[in-house]
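Need tokens for this chain, all 313 residues.
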Amino acid sequence: MSEKVLVLYGGMSSERTVSQRSGKAIANGLKKAGFTVKEFDFKGRMENVIDQFMPDVVFIALHGKFGEDGTVQGALELLGVPYTGSGVLASSVCMDKFFTKMIFKEMGIPTPNFLSFEKNNLSGIPDFSDILKLLNARKVVIKPVDQGSTIGITIASTEEKFKEGINVAFSFSNRIIIEKFIEGKEITVSVIGNGESLNVLPIIEIVPENEFYDFESKYTPGMSHHIIPARISKESYSEAERIVFQIYNAFKLRDFARIDFIVSDSGDVFALEINTIPGFTETSLLPDAAKAAGIDFPNLVKFIVNEAIKRAK
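Here are the structure tokens for all 313 residues:
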């Protein structure tokens, strides 16, 4: 009898449609791998479907709030149901860019300089010219702290764009970060497994058609190009892998994750953020990295489910 896997997708975040695509792809892959699969479009409650289906494991394919942030993980812990991916604390911390970057700083992991501001203190945000001086920057990246898929992100090099970016970011979150923009190559490093099964997949360089790797670039075929292996020096490649191991272990990530970086024109490697539930769509990066490592999609999702089942035993 094959193990039963409940695939949770959809959710209530701004990434709902992307999550639906990820979840359906995962469900199809698991069926091909021989699992008994039930798909469930999650909208806040799941007790009934768990009671009826009685899954051996839940594959969480929810992106963004109420899915990637530890909330669903906590609910499944209470229900006593094994699930894929990182636990409650790691999920919660990694979803918040402010806390992630604070931990990077504490660990000595290079990350672009940044400032943080809250919505209830708009008057405390310095002028754009002062921000540039504080960050020693020519451009800045303005981000809501708790959104994925680059939602709400603006790159600003003018006062007008800066003000617009502040308003956009605050429309998604009550806290934002303003980060120094670093010229260089965008790369991403995917990891699968735990302990002895840990595997760092080939590093991908991302070349977007737009100014940066925004929502359209991520999820529209042809709007970005994945170059494998990334066109960076051996030293930068090794440094990115070293940092990924450090982050994966320190944050207690599990089963799979994707960590984004900028490699500056001088070869310095800067960690940007951690994705504990990265995309699994046809244009997504982690499946592409696995494919480059010789792991097809059904075997990728099978591996992740088996890691979760092993942990539950």
